[in-house]
Every structure is written in structure tokens, then in C-alpha cells.
Amino acid sequence: MCRYSSWQCHTGRGAKDAASNRGFFQEQEGARLAFPSRRRRGRRPAAEERISVCTGARHLLDRMPPTRDGQRLEQAAAEIGEDRISALPDELLHRVLYFLPPREAVRTCMLSPRWRKVWKSMTALRITGGGGWRRAQDFNKFVNSLLLFRDRSPLLEFEFCTYYHPDMLSNEFEGSEEVVRYVDMWIRHAFKCDVRVLKVIGMSFPRPMVLDNVPLISDRLTTLMLWSVLLDGCSMDFSTCDKLEYLMMDGCRIPPHKIFSKSLRRLCVIQCDFSKDTCTQISVPSLVSLQLDGNSGMTPFLESMPLLVTAFVRLQLTCEELYVSEECMLLEGLSNAKNLELRGGSGVGVVLQLPVFRTSHLKTIFMQDLKWCPAFNKLNTLVLDGWVVGHDIRALICFLQHAPLLEKLILHLYDEPNYEMEMEGSYSLVEQFLPSEHLKIIEFRCREVNEIVCRFLNDLKACGITSIMINFKEPDC
What we know:
There is one protein chain. With 477 residues, the chain is α/β, with parallel strands linked by helices. 27% of the residues lie in helices and 17% in strands. It is built from 14 helices and 20 strands. The strands form four sheets. A 13-stranded parallel sheet has the order 1-2-3-5-7-10-13-15-16-17-18-19-20. A three-stranded parallel sheet has the order 9-12-14. Strands 4-6 form a two-stranded parallel ribbon.
């Protein structure tokens, strides 16, 4: 279940806060670095130029906590003598700064004249040290100044984590707008700098990070990764993002009813909240790798993915919506996969005492799709667990009948009392089934060979599966 699913988040902001949000960069319209620069005519005196070189850094340093390291920089430089690092090209220096906290990266302007402007042209910004600040206001001022005085050079990567504090769950921060005040502006600024890799991490508990009508669209964007973000009002239509190849959402709320991209190659949606009223449609025809893991809300509808190679789908046990679909929801979209893993529940070897209707619901989703008999003509490896087949040999045989090239089958069977026992009446279907000539291995992953495992073994042997094809292995955890 998404960690924000119980919150009642507003979709708008107060007039005063909205004005503050809009005002940050708009007030800097004509600032030298964040937006088109304001240049003076003629060349300035050398002394004035030297003073202005570090103006931006001075603003940033004014907002930094005091440190003793800076007091020793000049003395250390004098003792070292020859400065070989400064002779390196800017590309290598930017790589060095990439691994430094942003405050330390800015402080390098005091090392020597060579370093004065290096931080301004960094191609990657990783602002992940929000926990090192006493107040959210100080953190926000630093990030605002960093973006303002930085050169308007393209950003290859921009990663930021919102302000957080060990006491964030106290009443002092409840309802505080400051921790997420400028998030929208930072994202918009990154897109103005043609960012290619954007990573947004929401740590603003208990105040959620809400992206309301923020266009997550850029023709330069290749990777978009979101953690703990509520995408209220944001479009998931990436039709104009021709270079987007990787989309990852973890712990997010996804109200949009459609996720669309022609170029997307990898999609990961982990512990997110889909809409509980409308089925989300996922249309990604170029997808190669898919992961849907532990999401809540209505089960999404997967359109055809002809290039799909690997797919992992785990349905959330707390999902309670029951529906009767007139279409194949999941399996038709997964039918081109070469490696397919279908699971239910919360993990391998975890025994959960859940009502029977929930375990039945998980199996119902897959069994309902199996009625449409999608063909898995490219499938080589299939991984199923007891939540999917529900201890019903008919479900397993249906998969095997429609996977003519299947080479390896892995069954995770747990000693779970809530599994449904539906072995009766299955032998008529068993007698009609002949295993694929490509099937070489059937692997049972279980803690013990119990009655449930024995029933599967007997039915598989009745299908012509020999003992030499069957082996046993302990679960992963």
C-alpha cells in the first residue's frame, strides 16, 4: 500500500504560497545565470571582474553552516606546492564534484583561481543532503541560490531530495508548506536546462510532495525516477518525450488514467497507488522490461508489448476490488515475454493470515485472463507461485498448453492455509495435455514436500512429466 494512500492531500495552494512559488524565479527574470543573462556593455575593470567572479559563491557560502575546513584551505594549498588536480580538464573536475555534497562542491571555488567557476558549470547536481540543515528555510535558500548562480549549461543529471529532519513527524512540521515550497520550481528549472536524468525523492514526512500540474515532459529527458511523489494533475502522456527510455515510480500515487510512451524501454512501478475508480491503461509498445510490484488500486490494463523480454508482476494482497472484465487485463500484454514471473502476496516464504476472499481474488484475476487463452509463443522461463495458481492444476496446465517453447518452469509453493484446494475434477483436462518437447526443468521451491506439493507432482506425472525433469530447491528467503 502506498505510504501516502491515507492522506487527504489538497490539489491547490493558498494565494500567498502560490505567489511565493511563482515569484522565486520570476523575480530573477534577467538574473545572470538562471535565466538569460544580463550583460553590461563594454569590458569591466579587472578588479571589478575579480570581485564578481565569486559573488555567486559568496551568497551560497553565507547560507552554509560554518566549517573549520575552509580555514585550512589556503594553508594546505601552500604546503602542497604543485597543483596537479587543477590542471585536469573541466570534464574530470566535474566528475570529482559530482561525488561531493553540494555545499562542499561550492566551497571548492576558494581553492584557487582555476576552481572559481568550475562549480558553476557542473553538468550533474545531486542535492541529497537535506538532513544536514537545521531549518527547511536554510536548505531551500541554498538550493535556490545554487540554481540561480549556476551557469545556464545543460544538465545531464539532476537529483534532489526534499528537506528532512529527525523530528519531521512532530507537530512542529505538521502542515508545513516550507519543506515542499519550491519543488515545482526546481523541476521546471531542470527542464529549462534540458535535463536528461531527473530523480525526485520526497522525504517531506508528514507533508507529502504533491506535483500539481507540473509538466514532466522534455524532448531531452531519458530517465525519470520518482520516489514518494503524488502525481495529482500530472499527465503521464510522454508522447513528445522521444528519448525517454526509463521510468521508475516508487511509493507514488498515480491518478492519471493512462501511461503512454512510444520510446520507453524500462518501466518499474513499485508499491504505488493506482486509481481505485478507473483502470489505468498502460501503453508502451517499445517496452523491453516491466516490473509491477505490490501496487494497490485497480489492476492496470496492459496493451500489447511486442518487444517485451522480461516481466515481473506481483499483485498486492490488500487489493480488494472485484471486477468482471470483458478483456484480458494482464496476460495478453505480457504474452510476448521471454521471461515471465507472476506472483501474489508480499514475498517469498512469507506466511500471511488473510481472509479467503482476498486470496481468491488474486487467483480470480489470473484465471479470468486465462479464459482468453493468450499464447506465450516466445516464453522460455515461467515463474509462478501458489497465490497465482491457487493450488489448481488447471491453471498451471493452461499456462503450459499455451507456451510451446517453454524450457523451465519454477513453482513457489508455500505452506499457506488460505490457499484454495481445487484439485478435484482436473484429470479430464490433464489427460488431454501433452508437455512441450522443449520443457526440460520443473523446479519446486518449497520448505517441505507436503500434501500440496505431492498433488502437483502426481498430476504432472500423469501428464507425462518424468521424475528426471523435476527438482527441489529451498526458497530464496
